[in-house]
Amino acid sequence: MQTRYSQELIPITGWNREETFRFFSTFSQPYFNVHTELDITPLYTYCKANKLAVSLGYMHATLQAARATENFCYRIQNGEVVKYNGLDLSSTVLKDDLNVGFTHFPYHETLEDFCRQGAEIIAEVKKSTKLFNGYQGVDLLHMTTLPWFKFKGMEHAFALNGEEAGVPKLGFGQLEIEEDKVILPLSIGLHHALADGYHMHLFMQNLEAVVATYKS
């Protein structure tokens, strides 16, 4: 299986999640979803001041937070658990023909570099006729945005027994401007054999910390 990042095997026997893993691995639909929101005012202000796309801004912040949350890096491959030592993301891009293209966005340390390359990728994919654009391995996050209407949550379509088992699924809704705050609705789906609600909490803490770095 082609991957961009190295991986390490997590032995299931003796793992502190062994019983939980074996229990949820028997489920026909093992993903659970939580719908929440995040105040991204500092990130929004920074992006606007520096002429960066806000959507790419919160994509980058999300990727940083996921990479810092160990359980978001777990995947199930051939019945075994592996941890990837890095993540990129695959997000939907609305093309000129009004169909979506699943599109690879490589990780960059800086927001500016991520947004610069991301804008180039989006411009190219908009002209594409392909469904898949760029790398589509398992060491990714799956992400989509519904910017056209108020958003109270969503669930993704996915193959239950495919090679992507364990890939986190994230969805974002229309930004809500509330006086001096900018609120980002988001939906998070995780494979319950690999993570629980507590790990979602850790991810949200990491995401809040990333956003806070943009406070002036």
UniProtKB/TrEMBL annotation:
This is Chloramphenicol acetyltransferase. GO terms for molecular function: chloramphenicol O-acetyltransferase activity. PANTHER family: SLR0299 PROTEIN. Pfam families: CAT. The keyword Transferase applies. The keyword Transmembrane does not apply. SUPFAM superfamilies: CoA-dependent acyltransferases. Keywords: Transferase. InterPro entries: CAT-like_dom_sf, Cmp_AcTrfase.
